């Protein structure tokens, strides 16, 4: 399968404090990679490097498209001024900004595409509302539409389950399974049980990155990867790890 993006020996530090060391990672078409790891392990930093928001201290990033224009990114915390007078439809359309000439107008096709997506994600009825009127969960659906309106080759989601309401969580993963037929997905989550039942491969990030070419992982492997997280499972999970009884 074609490689979309490759990180080679990437290192990153904030103020001389090393956060990522010698990270190697290949993202191929139709990958569905789950990134797990302890708090402060460097997951968000890694995503920001992949998106191009942070430049690595050393190492190489090789993108098939030559740049990061075909990446859709749903950050962990969306900093948006809720008082800013902008409609839901315009927020979704703003995902196309970098693909347009400066001051270019949105075409009818752009609008139809945005509306079709909003209908798929269940927010079409909100299209003329001001973003300040939305709940957190509704706002996140809007941002998901904005991230995919460009038909990205790679969609990146940073802990979507921390802000998505429970009703939408199951639906979100169904949508992601569908989207994965057209694009690669990287998702960071602390809800290990839920992501394990959807992702195809797993990376444990705790300063270094350990790649696991399957969605079945055991506590022993996590220990070997130096990735101290609890395996919490619920629902239909392909592999369960139970703590020993004392
Ligand atoms: N802008 C910044 N300046 C300085 N240090 C930072 C900055 N952003 C993150 N860090 C530090 O870098 C380390 C990695 O942070 P990062 O947010 O990438 O981890 P994470 O694995 O995403 O954590 P979490 O699971 O808590 O979201 C942490 O020790 C964090 O405190």
UniProtKB/TrEMBL annotation:
Keywords from the UniProt entry: ATP-binding, Nucleotide-binding, Transport
Residue span, ABC transporter domain: 5-232
Any single Pfam family the record assigns to this protein: ABC_tran
InterPro entries, per database record: AAA+_ATPase (IPR003593), ABC_transporter-like_ATP-bd (IPR003439), ABC_transporter-like_CS (IPR017871), Metal_Ion_Import_ABC (IPR050153), P-loop_NTPase (IPR027417)
PROSITE patterns in UniProt: ABC_TRANSPORTER_1 (PS00211), ABC_TRANSPORTER_2 (PS50893)
Keyword ATP-binding: yes
GO molecular function: ATP binding; ATP hydrolysis activity
Alphabetized SUPFAM superfamilies for the sequence: P-loop containing nucleoside triphosphate hydrolases
PANTHER family to which the protein is assigned, alphabetical: METAL TRANSPORT SYSTEM ATP-BINDING PROTEIN TM_0124-RELATED
Family membership: Belongs to the ABC transporter superfamily.
Name listed for the protein in its UniProt record: ABC transporter ATP-binding protein
Organism: Ancylomarina longa
């Amino acid at each position: 399968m074609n490689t979309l993006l490759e990180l080679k020996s990437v290192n990153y530090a904030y103020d001389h404090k090393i956060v990522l060391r010698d990270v190697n990672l290949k993202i191929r078409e139709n990958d569905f990679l789950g990134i797990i790891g302890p708090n402060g392990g460097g997951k968000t930093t890694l995503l920001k490097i992949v998106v191009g928001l942070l430049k690595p201290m050393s190492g190489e990033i090789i993108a098939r498209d030559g740049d990061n224009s075909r990446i859709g990114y749903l950050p962990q915390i969306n900093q948006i001024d809720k008082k800013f007078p902008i409609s839901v439809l315009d927020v979704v359309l703003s995902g196309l900004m970098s693909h347009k000439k400066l001051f270019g107008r949105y075409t009818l096709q752009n609008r139809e595409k945005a509306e079709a997506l909003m209908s798929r994600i269940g927010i079409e009825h909100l299209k003329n509302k001001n973003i300040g009127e939305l709940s957190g969960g509704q706002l996140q659906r809007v941002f998901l539409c904005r991230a995919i309106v460009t038909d990205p080759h790679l969609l990146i989601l940073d802990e979507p389950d921390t802000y998505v309401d429970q009703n939408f969580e199951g639906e979100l993963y169904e949508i992601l399974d569908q989207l994965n037929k057209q694009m690669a997905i990287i998702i960071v989550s602390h809800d290990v049980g839920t992501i394990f039942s959807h992702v195809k491969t797993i990376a444990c990030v705790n300063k270094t990155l350990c790649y696991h070419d399957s969605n079945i992982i055991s506590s022993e492997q996590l220990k070997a990867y130096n990735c101290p997280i609890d395996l919490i499972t619920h629902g239909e999970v392909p592999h369960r790890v139970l703590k020993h009884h004392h």
